[in-house]
Amino acid sequence: MPDYVFAYHGGKTPETQEEGAKAMAAWEAWFQDMGDAVVNPGNPVGMSKTVTATAVEDHGGANPISGFSIVTADTMEGAVGLAKGCPMVVDGSGSIEVAEIHNLM
Q1: Do the beta carbons of residue 15 and residue 93 sit within 8 Å?
Q2: Nearest to 2 by CA among 83, 96, 71, 85
Q3: CB within 8 A of 19, min separation 6: which ones?
Q4: Cβ atoms within 10 A of the Cβ of 71, count?
Q5: I want to staple 70 with a disulfide (CB 3.0 to 4.6 A). Which of 39, 50, 58, 75 is the partner?
Q6: What φ, ψ does residue 80 adopt, rounded to 5°?
Q7: Comparing C-alpha atoms, which of 87, 89, 104 is closest to residue 3?
Q8: In this structure, what are the phi and psi dihedrals at residue 45, rounded to the nearest 5 degrees?
Q9: Residues 95, 26: contact at Cβ < 8 Å?
Q10: What confidence tens digit (pLDDT) does each residue in 71-104 have?
Q11: Burial of 92 (0-12, 13-18, 19+ CB in 10 A)
Q12: Distance of alpha carbon 55 from its chain centroid, rounded?
């Protein structure tokens, strides 16, 4: 069964402890719902740099990554179905780019 990377874009930082607790509970519930499909729950990430042949940009591009996870699913459609349950997708504050990981070795 192939693995897929979920590259998170956007999301929002909770403004209060209560919002933070509610957000964390939603993420924990989503990961629990996905069960054994979660290969690596990943983490949020800091500001990124975009590296090209001619420059290094500090802002991470037009839609910088805000975190990642790795899941396993039978198909791309199955992985997309899992992604649809993400709390920041559900609340409209972010999006997920889903890509199959190709194991070359």
Answers
A1: no
A2: 71
A3: none
A4: 24
A5: 39
A6: -65, -40
A7: 104
A8: -125, 160
A9: no
A10: 999 999 999 999 999 999 999 999 999 999 998 8
A11: exposed
A12: 26
56 conformational bin, left if phi > 0, alpha if psi -120 to 50, beta if neither? beta
Listed in sequence order, the residues at least 6 apart from 55 whose beta carbon sits closer than 8 Å to its beta carbon are none
Place of tokens 């001619």: 54
Structure tokens at 58: 């500090």
pLDDT tens digits, 18-72:
999 999 999 999 999 999 999 999 999 988 888 889 989 887 777 889 999 999 9
| Tokens read off for 52 | 């090209």
The answer to whether 71 and 82 have CB atoms below 8 angstroms apart is yes
Cα(82)–Cα(49) distance, integer angstroms: 28
| Cβ neighbours, 10 Å, residue 26 | 16
Amino acid at 40: N
DSSP state of 84: T
Cα 102 to chain centroid distance, Å, stands at 18
